[in-house]
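Bench notes, afternoon.
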Amino acid sequence: MLLNHLMTVLNSIWGGNPFALLVSIVDLLLVWFFVYKFLMLIKGTRSMRILAGFFLLLALYFVGKLVGMKAMVWLLGGVFEYFILIVVLIFREEIRNILSSFEFMRMLAGEGGTYESIVMSEELAEALAHLAQTREGALCIVTQKGDPEPFVTGGVPIDAEVKKELLISIFRKNSPLHDGAVIIKDGRIALASVVLPLSTNPEIDANFGTRHRAAYGISERVDALVFVVSEERGQISMLKEGRITRNMTREMIKKMLTKHLAQD
């Protein structure tokens, strides 16, 4: 396909048709743009390994064609004949999540992170919104460069994917892990029921309780996003570097998480 486009460009140049040349160039740039964005989206995921295997088969096909391996060419040629269908089947979950969560436009604008970070942001934002609605307190630390573990005590190892249902069950009032904080590290729930250091900042709102003071305390020490759900007010706050942003919405949370996780 790309070879045909290149031939079209060359024919346009020699044929003296500037409009056809412009269309072909724009066409090629759009194709490369979508391919690049898709690769950035699945970078570091299982889908990237599947895609690498697919390109290995493609390389075998061309090598087989070059050296005359007719059986190999016949077998793989039949596979690549349904290239679009295979891509849709392999990456159906990625395509569905991108489109259903309106992350497609973010991807085009270059605001998104990897596929995993986008899904994690979605799950955490939904969980926090649900906990705020049901007025169940919660405290979540999302790390990137900083490591909060040297500053915390206790905690129960979890090592699980960030899922809305799991976070809600952790912070339910009758859960044994309800007290304390959850640490999300490398895109996974690392620890639950963690005890954080309390801030001694005298400028903190006097109406804030232990949960908010703990959020201040860890955000002052570690490069992380800290989310607090107030069970009294049913509001979500975010802290970073000792500064608080109140009344966070679901969309605001997703945007901040995606931006934070996309940082090197």
